[in-house]
Amino acid sequence: MSRPKKAETIVKLLSGYELDYTAITAKLSEKDIPMLNELAMRSPITIAARAVICLGWFASEEAIPGIEFAAKSDNSVLRLTAAHALSGLSNKRGAFELIGGLLDDDDVGVRKFALRTIHNAKIPGLKEKVRQVCHNDPSEQIRKLAEKVYERLTADG
């Protein structure tokens, strides 16, 4: 039975230059999710963002607090990372609202990643919200991406 890793051990895993998240998450377990949540909420941006990515890999409802913190952060890097991390959690309690909220973000990159998450996770419950983005987003690039996402959601049911 594996024991949860200490913060220092996880920070060391997340401190590399070009990270291999498959290898990192293979060294972690669901018992490490509380520490990853803590790191997402209390670490410098680089470590926090990497912790959020790892939380997304676990696709566990227990990962939502750290991802929610990132999604509601003042830092656009954390919000973008949250949008990416939510792709594996779209069916978990609270994730749906977070993804929908990120579609309204001021940062175009965050909205782009939120749309990609909706596209990849095929979240039909956000079809109407995506349709609104098609017509109302100030960015032409985002409107075009939203059209593609909307088409996929419509085709899937």
Please provide a brief summary of the model.
This protein is an all-alpha fold and 157 residues long.
Could you outline the blueprint of secondary structure elements for this entry?
Elements: H1 7-13, H2 21-27, H3 33-42, H4 45-58, H5 64-71, H6 76-85, H7 95-102, H8 108-121, H9 127-136, H10 140-155
Helix pairs in contact: 2-4, 3-4, 3-5, 4-5, 4-6, 5-6, 6-8, 8-10, 9-10
Describe what this molecule looks like in 3D.
This protein has a single domain, classed as Alpha Horseshoe (Leucine-rich Repeat Variant), CATH 1.25.10. α6 runs parallel beside α8. It is elongated and about 50 Å long. It is built from 10 helices and no strands. It has 157 residues and is an all-alpha fold.
Characterize the biggest β-sheet: none
The third-level CATH topology is Leucine-rich Repeat Variant
**Percent of sequence in beta strands:** under 5%
Number of strands: 0
SSE pattern: HHHHHHHHHH
Distance between the termini: 43 Å
CATH level-two architecture: Alpha Horseshoe
The total count of helices amounts to: 10
Name given to the CATH homologous superfamily: Leucine-rich Repeat Variant
